[in-house]
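REQUEST ID: PR-0412
SUBMITTED BY: lab tech R.K.
PRIORITY: routine
TASK: structure prediction, single protein chain
INPUT:
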Amino acid sequence: MKLFSVMCLAVAAIQLSIASAQDAVPHAGPDSEATLTYIHAAWNTLTRSMNDCNTLTDSKVNTTPVLYLPAEMPVPPEVAAVGQRCHVRIAALPRRIEKLGDVNPEELPAPGLLYLPNPYVVPGGRFNEMYGWDSYFILIGLEADHREALAKGIVDNFLFEIEHYGAVLNANRTYYLTRSQPPFLTSMIRAVYEDPASFAKTPEGRTEAKAWLDHAYTLAEKDYTTWTRPEHKAGATGLARYFDYGSGPVPEMADDSTYYPDVIRWLAAHSHEGGEGFLVKASELPDAAEAARLKLTSCDVHASVVCMKAWAAGYRLSRDFYLGDRAMRESGFDTGFRFGPFDGAANHFAPVCLNSLLFRYERDLEHLALLLGKPREATLWERRAKARYTAIQRYLWRPKEGVFADFDFVHARPSSYAYITSLYPLWAGIATREEARQMVSKLNLFERPGGLSTSNTRSGMQWDEPYGWAPTNWIAVDGLETMGFRVDAARIARDFDATVDAGFAQDGAIREKYNVVTGNTNVQVSAGYKTNEIGFGWTNAVYLKMKEILPQPDAANSN
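STATUS: complete
OUTPUT:
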């Protein structure tokens, strides 16, 4: 791990190493019109519904499709018809769900898709379901492209998830019933409600909008409690952490049988590089007695094929590593080295990203409560936001370095890992003007010719240098724009969209991630998700939103 101070000294070397790439990255897309045409058409390509047989397939687990309905919900006639037409088994969950973890995915006879009432947009590739944080970026792209009805339907699906599956889920598959994803729900609610095209401009439309907002506010309150449960508390800091209520390796890694063994081999070869306690000596084929011990110290080899195969070099992964691995997946940043090797200590940290999002969530609920004529509730949300703000400033702001950083509450120390999420407080409205100025002065930690890199550590993982992603680039750009750093925002927006254009010109597709050092789709990940999926929901959306940041040609010509 590099200290921020060391990183700052190393920036010049990093810039020199990418200088040759600078000239190769176009600052205006080779053909942005072609990219835009692709995006406009892609929304239909990426839209799924319960009436579509393609919705039910899942390459991650490669099993016969099953469609699960809430235990309290009768089978709608159209769903029964889909079961016959698509040769899919329709099943009910075993009981009503009130919160994450009420149903353990392992108790179901087979993994499957969770029913949602409205069409939704999937990311693309192997990600063929509606994801929690992806959908925020997809939604703002849909609204930018005047697809308001589809955007509202996505929010209604999340409200359905809270009501029937206990919270906003990582995605609507049964193996995600134990975790959520970064909390963008209130931002989505506001985006829909504040868009004049979401409801009819009539007295009836205004009445419908108010009723919808009231319903959404009530369910958002329930979703918020996910993040205040004891398991989601970051010790005594008053902050939150990521946490998954399941145990052992995640089932969705069944299609990458080498990932966990790769992790074990790396940890065994780098025993003094931050992975202490992540390995357990074990047999490849444990007998009954050893299997019983491993159930407590590692994972249940009899309950999970992924667990059984997670062995290499005489070791298995520890129970705590799997808790961290699952927490990392709730964060959406899977996989990097931000929370130790392979993010195996993610459950030990109060992250800047999560607590920034929760601060904004609390402020949003304060605003919505006032709109709904609930001043007492608004006061409570204001108090919660102020308490979180105080804790963020105490534990996550590092005044000497001038950065926001994750806090390891287990060891009572701030992280020294420079990460793009340090810019989230600009977007969330936490950073003061002076804090924002200091953060902007360190943009060169992440800024590359093709946009913002996730970190400046080359771990070989997809959420580290040299890779840049649409969501984190947008959060940074929107935060810079909001705080008044418009020149910086426009420069990054231009460079990121140019990278997307260059990639599209190369292979006629839009990808989930990009190499922002070379400004193209040259992605070579050493472990974890090694592919670069095509689609791609959030990249399509952010490309459109970046265009709104850039000066318009007419305006530029008039100056």
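NOTES: Residues 251-350 form one domain.
REVIEWED BY: pending
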